[in-house]
Amino acid sequence: MIPTKHICPTCSKEFFGRLNKKFCCEDCKSDFNNRKAADLKKELPDNKLLQKNYLILKELYPESMGEVGIETTMFYKKGFDFQAPSRKVKTHKYGFECYLNNGYAYRVLNDRTVQQLLIYKSEELDNL
Question: Domain boundaries in the chain?
Answer without folding.
Answer: 48-127
